[in-house]
Amino acid sequence: MSDGQRETTPGAGLVKGLATTLKTMVTPSHTAEYPHRLPELPPRSRGVIGLFEENCTVCMLCARECPDWCIYIDSHKEPVPPARPGGRERSRNVLDRFAIDYALCMYCGICIEACPFDALFWSPEFEYAEYDIRDMTHERDRLREWMWTVPPPPANDPGAPAPKEVDAAAKTAAKAEPPRSNDAARPQPPWEAGDDGG
Amino acid sequence: MTAVDVVLLLLGALAAGSGVLVVTTRRLVHAALWLVVTFGALAGMYLVMTAELVAWVQVLIYVGAVVVLLLFGIMLTRAPTGRSDDLDSGNRPAAVVGGVVTCVLLVTLAGYGFSSAYADLDTGRLGTARAIGTVLFRSWVLPFELLSVLLLAALVSAIVLSRRRES
Amino acid sequence: MNVAVEVAVRVVLVFAAFLLFPLVVGYMEHKAMAHMQGRLGPMYAGGFHGWAQLVADGVKFAQKEDIVPADADRTVFKLAPWIALLPYLLVLVVVPVGPGGLVGSDVDAGLFYALAVMSVGVVGAVMAGYASANKFALLGGIRVAAQLMAYELPLVLSAVSAAMAAGTLSLGGIVGAWRPWWLAWQLLALVVFLVAGVAELRRPPFDMPVADSEIIFGPYTEYTGLRFALFLLAEYAGIVVVSALATVLFLGGWKGPVLDAQLGWLWTCVKVLFVAFVVIWLRVSFPRLREDQLQRFAWMGLVPLALAQLLLTAIVKVAIS
Ligand code: SF4
Ligand code: SF4
Hints:
The complex is a heterotrimer. Helix content of chain B is 74%, strand content 0%.
């Protein structure tokens, strides 16, 4: 601030300070009394990571990408009977354990970015404190429960191009392949359950 | 002996006792704190003798300012929390002699000088602010002003002394 | 017998005021400060807007471990909180609350009594600073002493201005002589008195001696539990005392717009709480002064102002008499 801009009346700054505090005192305060009033979190809040098990192929990419090595995944292979009679038997990975140690997790979100199968999601839930640091490793069931708290993604900005996956889905639909039978039985993420076609 | 006399004597003993402790204690800061007790006891004595204003001024100036100044000086320069045995200069006999002589001198002088001055504490309110103010600015105004000039001179010289090195 | 009962009642009343008012002011500080910073302050203790927060704090302090540092000067260390607190109780005794002897004890030189006893409280803080055997406490103690020496003079001078205007040293007498236009006449003295009083209490913005961001908590660094609580109580009692003195000396004490005789005590309480609010307000609004600024402000700002006010008081006094 240059000297020219400085106020010249002595004590004007003092009065201004008093006025500011007085004005703040008579305006309502910003405090939200948390346990009684839950905060309104913005979309994409990084509260906890939910696992949508049905999408997970146990590719281990998330565990490998995690900078903290705090994702634990165990799995085994199971044979899948041949699709057509006489065909070759296939195998697939079955998830045995999926756990995230939230005492180590630094909420970087790399695992979620890395997952190529849309199995990991941010949930805004944050009230999962524990009394022991060892209890901070949360297993698959808990991660699945959190999955149902994941909010729908916020709408795109008006005029923005449609997301790539929507385009891709539209193209696939245009090819009009008949849906495979086991697709219908698969559970959907909560926000997709209602409007399948959209 | 009336109750007032007893209180006066007790306060006197307290003042004298804490005064002795001021010079004999081995802890520098304790000496200053005992001085508080001495001044407090003196103020109490003034109170008993109905000299209210003098008592409160005594507390205000001596306890509130002079002792705090002393403590400030001690803490700024040495601030020992424990005992400081180097305080004893080994001049005890001389100090005792000096103290006794001063005491005798003062008592005799005061006794002779004010032997005819009596104040009846029961009737008039001699120690009120009004009474003291009247006496001070009527009968004793010259000594009072002289004293203030003396203090002013001390003040000015202190400033001069502290500024001498600057030039 | 009658006299004894009356004295007992007065003592109990003063003691009750001594216990109650600092808590009220403390609660007001919690709340006013919070709202001035856009917060709510305590909301839970006691149910309604956290009114019992300070009681809860007191219980907490009472449960804490009682620690005396190994190298501390034990006696002085333990004595200091009481020396810091009790003078304020003794001052409250002479503060007139209402007309017609509604006062703990009417002392003739009440003004000097109040100022003298108040200045003793500072010795408690200096003792605490010395006895803790802690360099931060020592620094704080030195600063407390320096601050007292600087601000005692303007405090006394501005108070004397009110006494001069009223022609008496009795606090009740000063209120009796007070007229509303004195507000203008003694305005400068009021400001100087308040500023010096806040400084003497080591309240922000004059809280260099206890500046927590630099020297932890100054003289109180080593204190915990009840003794620490006593120091805190002393601070709030100090606010009450300074506000009460400012009310009595400059704001007309029990004189209000209506019903002075019946509602005098209420006017006094309202004024005291208002001044206490201003003290809190200052704390929230202004940043802390540096040590050299503190000294410069006292000696080159407040003392000349107080002297100028004395001159003005004398001139007006002579002119109207
Ligand atoms: S958010 Fe980051 S740290 Fe946490 S599990 Fe995912 S990759 Fe690991
Ligand atoms: S990256 Fe996705 S699909 Fe692969 S293991 Fe992790 S969660 Fe499962």
